[in-house]
Amino acid sequence: MKRGKKYKESAALYDRMQQYEVNEALELVKKTAKASFDETVEIHVKLGVDSRHADQQVRGAVVLPHGTGKTVRVLVFAKGEKAAAAEAAGADYVGGDELADKIKNENWMEFDVAIATPDMMGVVGKIGRILGPKGLMPNPKAGTVTMDVERAVVDSKAGKIEYRLDKANIVHCSIGKVSFETPKLEENFRTLLDALVKAKPAAAKGKYLRSVVVASTMGPGVKVNAQKILD
After folding, report:
1. d(CA 41, CA 218)
2. pTM above the 0.85 mark?
3. What confidence tier does 142 reach under pLDDT thresholds 50, 70, 90?
4. Whether 163 contacts 44, CB under 8 Å
5. Are 134 and 188 in the same domain?
6. Does residue 1 sit within a domain?
7. Which CATH number goes with the domain that contains 193?
8. In terms of residue numbers, what domain contains 144?
9. Which H or E element spans position 78?
10. Confidence band, pLDDT 50/70/90 cuts, at residue 85
């Protein structure tokens, strides 16, 4: 892969083979972020599980103490009192069939999180093939299929993120912005890692945290000493 000049300059600022302490790694991510915009800080965690097996799935959600630095647009599928509650909690869009039809017929995707009450899953199921591949399908494990829509909306707005394995058994998440102070990024980092460790499947064998890498949107990856995280 051909790399740009800024990327190469950033990569020269650290040892790509070394595993750094969490705060050191995050400082390097901030230092190597050269883009003209406030880059997102990402974490990529390879786990010692096999996502092909149902009993080794790792999926859930966690509220980052300092949020993600991103304005989150929340859509809620609800009716009656729950729809009113969602609106009062600050949901950007609330509705039912009309929203599903808009997504299906107009390819409308102006939202970042979709929440639904259980009784609305019949409506949501009609657009599952659209929402699923984009990671937007409401799910009980992520707390996005719930009767407590108020709490779900507030948490989403406050910085709740969903984590799940990809086909390579890696979890990819955003934990803030380069403009965040390092201690806040570190607290978000540790909150997510704690959630992943607690979500370890009983069927998982051997080393669980295989590798942990942090990076900015346009910057190089910095390896984190995963064993020190567990100590």
Report:
1. 10
2. no
3. confident
4. no
5. no
6. no
7. 3.30.190.20
8. 74-158
9. none
10. very high
Q: Which residue has the tokens 């991103």?
A: 70
Cα first-last separation, the chain: 36
Please tell me the predicted confidence (pLDDT) of residue 228. Answer: 72
pLDDT for 51 equals 87
Q: Which of 107, 101, 105, 106 is nearest to 77 (CA)?
A: 101
Residue with tokens 């959630």: 195
Beta bridge partners of residue 176, listed in sequence order: 41
Q: How many domains does the chain have?
A: 2
Helix locations, the chain, DSSP H: 5-11, 22-32, 80-89, 97-106, 121-125, 128-131, 149-158, 182-198, 226-230
Residue 77's Cβ-side half-sphere holds a number of Cα atoms within 13 Å equal to 30
Whether residue 77 contacts residue 95, with contact meaning beta carbons closer than 8 Å, is answered with yes
Interval 168-196 mean pLDDT? 95
> What separation in angstroms does the CA of 117 have from each of 80, 133, 224?
11, 21, 39
DSSP state letter for 216: E
Q: Which amino acid is at 74?
A: V
Place of tokens 């942990």: 212
Given a cut of 70, whether residue 41 has pLDDT beyond it is yes
State the average pLDDT over residues 170-187. 96
